[in-house]
Design brief:
- The protein is mostly helical.
- The chain has three domains: about 130 residues, Rossmann fold, CATH 3.40.50.620; about 120 residues, Serine Threonine Protein Phosphatase 5, Tetratricopeptide repeat, CATH 1.25.40.80; about 160 residues, DNA Cyclobutane Dipyrimidine Photolyase, subunit A, domain 3 (Orthogonal Bundle), CATH 1.10.579.
- The protein contains 20 helices and five strands.
- A five-stranded parallel beta sheet has the order 3-2-1-4-5, sandwiched between helices.
- Helix 6 packs across helix 11, helix 10 runs antiparallel to helix 11 and helix 13 packs across helix 14.
- The longest helix is centred in the middle third of the chain and has 22 residues.
- The structure holds flavin-adenine dinucleotide.
- This is Deoxyribodipyrimidine photo-lyase.
- Pfam families: DNA_photolyase, FAD_binding_7.
- Its EC number is 4.1.99.3.
Length: about 475
């Protein structure tokens, strides 16, 4: 009897725990449930949805090559998932369902409802912890709590990691043809925003594998030195692929092991720094499960809920549209809107600028990022925003407020990145691009800063000092 694999954000054939487990039990039928209205309610925008759609199409081609038919359904709400999957199980005569778990709260609840519904129907549904080395709850502090700070989490992660935890799963062998026809894939309906040029982000596991290989061959060993400079392509740009599972963290870690004499925590400084980022990714997934309030739009640091955020629409729009008068912030925001991706250093700079200099609620920035990011992923995005706003785990102490101009001169010393995204400043000498004062730029059409750094910093400090700690 056939076994169903329900694909979600794990769009690959290789090293896929659910697919490998299903293929051991019988011929596989793949299912994809497109849940656009709910994904949009969760804030995912056109870039991610477009990439997701193209990823499903690439997956379907791969599955066809293995003789696995893919069924496709449209649902409006996660609540429809159990009945839809049961209907498919009955139709194809399947007795078991496998899927890889997702960790935000609504996704956990949806999956629990599916497991319960299958159980009631006398069918087996199994959720695999495929996107993490340790299932949430497997790594706990000495007191038995989830970690709320990264460094001890990372130490425990390395200490307890065994080779089996990151061993690759087999890709299934081609199977005899089933008497089940695949469904045609529907087009993406017209969305409010137009997605960025898809050629920037070719979908599928081949494109992901290619990126990983190129990164490790040319940039991995320089990662530590280059990762903070947005004008250099020093990072992997694998985040969209990891977010939708077109590549797995195990494939990334195995590739590092092969390059780094079998080590993850020691050896080449660039490669080990990169591994650390993959551990951050896992950390924020554990946080989402261990502290579900973060999935309910709440601050991790409860006392910061009382912060008196400013409600200033004009400032918020200036930030969104890259018109703050701080070139590094504006260039970064334009990179985000034009490409669906922003360099990590600049995510920190822009998020801190919104939440500290403008003192605007980090949740508004979180929503804006998710709407534009092709790698938009709840756990990492929420974790990053709460870090920048000093409301989260490892929160940057509230008094540590990046000076955007200093960040700019340190991490884009020649103003190359600024010139790329702010052509109106390209005519200025590189060093003058960081803080083009009005009289200097004369006829150049670039706004004056919307806030003064020192005054804005003082305002943010006041607001944070007024909070009572727990
Ligand atoms: P690399 O430097 O090559 O890192 C490799 C991988 O590690 C990344 O692809 C990503 O999967 C993971 N990773 C790296 N840094 C982090 C981090 N700080 N937290 C969690 N995982 C990390 N990342 C997302 O994947 N989706 C998001 O929606 C997202 N939103 C963010 C919002 C803010 C405010 C901040 C500060 C960070 C956010 N990040 C997010 C984390 C990070 O900025 C991106 O993962 C990274 O810039 C992606 O580029 P890369 O693939 O070249 O990363």
């Amino acid at each position: 009897t056939p076994v169903i694999v329900w694909f979600r954000s794990d769009l690959r054939l290789q090293d896929n725990a659910a697919l490998a487990a299903a293929a051991r039990q019988g011929p596989v039928v793949a299912v994809f449930l497109r849940c656009l209205p709910q994904w949009q309610r969760h804030g995912h925008g056109a870039n991610k949805l477009d990439f997701w759609g193209r990823g499903v199409a690439a997956l379907r081609d791969g599955l066809t090559g293995l003789g696995i038919p893919m069924l496709h359904r449209e649902i409006d709400d996660f609540a429809e998932a159990p009945a839809t999957l049961l209907e498919i199980a009955q139709r194809v005569g399947a007795r078991a369902l496998h899927f890889n778990r997702e960790y935000p709260l609504d996704e956990q609840r949806r999956d629990a409802a599916v497991i319960a519904a299958f159980g009631e129907a006398g069918l087996a549904a199994t959720g695999h912890h495929d996107a993490v080395a340790f299932a949430p709850g497997e790594l706990l502090t000495g007191k038995g709590d989830y970690y709320g700070v990264f460094t001890p989490f990372a130490k425990a992660w390395h200490r307890q990691l065994t080779p089996e935890r990151i061993a690759l799963h087999d890709t299934p062998a081609p199977q005899p043809r089933l008497a089940i026809d695949p469904d045609p894939l529907p087009d993406l309906p017209t969305l409010e925003d137009t997605p960025v040029d898809g050629r920037l982000w070719p979908a599928g596991e081949d494109a992901a594998a290619d990126r990983l290989e190129r990164f490790l061959r040319f940039r991995g060993r320089h990662y530590q030195r280059q990762r903070d400079f947005p004008a250099i392509r020093g990072t992997s740009e694998l985040s969209p692929y990891l977010a939708l599972g077109m590549i797995s963290h195990r494939q990334c870690l195995q590739a590092v092991l092969a390059e780094n004499d079998g080590a993850l925590a020691e050896g080449d400084a660039g490669l080990t720094a990169w591994v650390n980022e993959l551990v951050w990714r896992e950390f924020y997934r554990h946080v989402a499960v261990g502290f579900p309030r973060v999935c309910r739009h709440r601050a991790f640091q409860r006392h910061t809920e009382a912060l008196a955020w400013r409600d200033d629409e004009a400032d918020f729009r200036a930030w969104c549209e890259g018109r703050t008068g701080y070139p590094i912030v504006d260039a970064a925001m334009r990179q985000l809107v034009a490409t669906g991706w922003m360099h990590n250093r600049l995510r920190m700079v822009t998020a801190m600028f919104l939440s500290k200099h403008l003192l605007i609620d980090w949740r508004r920035g979180e929503v804006f990022f998710l709407r534009h990011l092709v790698d938009g992923e709840f756990c990492a995005n929420n974790g990053g925003w709460q870090w920048a706003a000093s409301t989260g785990t490892d929160a940057a102490p509230y008094f540590r407020i990046f000076n955007p101009t200093t960040q700019s001169t340190r991490f884009d010393p020649d103003g190359t990145f600024l010139a790329e995204w702010l052509p109106e400043l390209a005519g200025l000498p590189g060093k003058a691009r960081h803080a083009p004062s009005n009289d200097l730029i004369g006829g150049v059409d670039y706004p004056a800063p919307i806030v003064d750094h020192r005054a804005a910093r003082a305002r943010a400090l006041e607001a944070f000092k007024a909070l009572k700690t727990d």
